[in-house]
Specification:
Blueprint lengths: L1 E10 L8 E11 L10 H10 L4 E5 L15 E3 L4 E3 L8 E2 L5 E2 L9 E2 L2 E7 L1 H6 L5 E5 L10 E3 L4 E3 L1
Antiparallel strand pairs: 1-2, 1-3, 2-4, 4-5, 6-7, 8-9, 9-10, 10-11, 11-12
Length: about 160
């Protein structure tokens, strides 16, 4: 079976820019009898004819081409000919593998003994101080207001 993503041109769905992107609306499965080979134009043409228009790009369930399997809300980059996840935060950028990376390296300390740090990115903290951004709470903290920890670059420091 072949898989195809229908694309709609929209203003940046994240709201970070006013750029337009091709956003995945849906993914459909098409029988192999309609598609001679992977990334063959006939498959996209078949989708256009069958679904009466639209922009269609084949996607690989096994990630064999176009970086990853398309999902609803993902972005298709026609220059790179790849499906990409939406930019998670305004400060993040694509690396050489086209994966989103934070401007500060992800913390290396993720647990202490049996306790894990539940780590998240805080864009507001980064905007206020570009040396901050990663924050965490401990997995065993069951208090009503858990203690927050900020990543110092080498250790977690409580707020």
């Amino acid at each position: 079976m072949a898989h195809f993503a229908e694309l709609k041109t929209k203003t940046d769905p994240t709201g970070f820019t006013s750029d337009t992107h091709q956003v995945v609306e849906r993914v459909v499965v098409v029988g192999n009898d309609c598609v001679p080979s992977d990334m063959h134009q006939d498959g996209e043409t078949w989708c256009i004819n069958f679904f009466k228009g639209g922009i269609w790009k084949q996607t690989s369930y096994n990630h064999n081409f176009r970086k990853m399997y398309a999902g609803i809300g993902m972005i298709y980059d026609p220059v790179k000919d790849k499906f990409l996840t939406q930019q998670p935060h305004a400060s993040w950028s694509l690396d050489s593998s086209d994966d989103w990376q934070a401007p500060i390296t992800h913390p290396t300390v993720t647990e202490e003994g049996d306790v894990r740090y539940i780590i998240s990115w805080n864009e507001t903290k980064y905007d206020a101080d570009n040396t901050q951004g990663w924050e965490a709470i401990k997995s065993n903290d069951e208090s009503e207001t858990p203690t927050k920890y900020n990543w110092s670059g080498s250790a977690w420091v409580s707020e």
